[in-house]
Design brief:
6 helices, transmembrane, mainly alpha, 3 strands, membrane, transmembrane helix
């Protein structure tokens, strides 16, 4: 819970410090990583209660038995979509100083080539990919730690769900910002015969799905005991 609170505070400070799309994305990354770090730190600091006893079992524990499958599958899909969008953003970005992709979409109109913004640039893409990789590694390590720990199966499921939800914050929140930024940056009215209505609608749908998932993940992190009986 502390990690989520710190992440929200950092997100507000970074995002409201400037109206640029870079600050919004960096704030989203800070939110996700702070939540992941908070959940990880809380798990490391946790100690078994005085009544806990380690008992050996003959059946090995499998990670897939404790991870919420529907949430995990949804986040894997969203992580793939985020990666694809970031690659598209780099490929289609206008060339800035030094030949690097700038924060604008390169478009061709009857009057000639012109940039359209806002659009994720190189300064947005690489931090987003790095945050995604870092969050994924932290989630894998944390889930393995949770499954190997002594205690009851129900509590292990709750902790594993919280770990996956924390990872979800590093996926869904940046995906929300990236998809909304790209939807706003598409040229309108269409230039050079390009039809932007369908891509804009698809990006809006992705943003909506990411927002719903991020809200759910935040609820899981803030109120993990509410999902004590959840299996999926």
């Amino acid at each position: 819970m502390a990690g989520a609170a710190v992440g929200l505070a950092v997100n507000v400070v970074v995002s409201l410090g400037s109206a640029s799309r870079a600050d919004l994305l960096h704030g989203a990354l800070a939110l996700g990583l702070c939540v992941m770090a908070g959940v990880f730190a809380a798990d490391v600091a946790a100690r078994p209660g005085p009544g806990w006893t380690r008992m050996a079992g003959l059946t090995p524990r499998r990670i897939r038995d404790y991870v919420p499958r529907s949430l995990a599958v949804s986040l894997v899909v969203q992580a793939a979509v985020l990666s694809v969008l970031l690659i598209i953003a780099v490929v289609t970005a206008a060339t800035g100083e030094g030949g690097r992709p700038a924060g604008a979409l390169s478009g061709t109109c009857p009057g000639g080539a012109r940039p359209f913004s806002p659009w994720p640039g190189a300064g947005d893409v690489w931090p987003a990919l790095g945050g995604l990789v870092l969050g994924t590694v932290a989630c894998v390590l944390l889930v393995r730690r949770v499954v190997a720990r002594a205690g009851g199966d129900e509590q292990r499921r709750v902790n594993a769900r919280a770990a996956v939800a924390a990872w979800g914050m590093t996926v869904s929140v940046p995906l929300l910002v990236v998809s909304l930024t790209m939807a706003r940056g598409l040229p309108t009215p269409p230039c050079a015969g390009m039809t932007t209505d369908v891509p804009a609608q698809m990006l809006s749908f992705v943003a909506l799905a990411a927002a719903v998932t991020a809200a759910h993940c935040l609820c899981v992190v803030m109120l993990p005991q509410a999902y004590l009986g959840a299996r999926r």
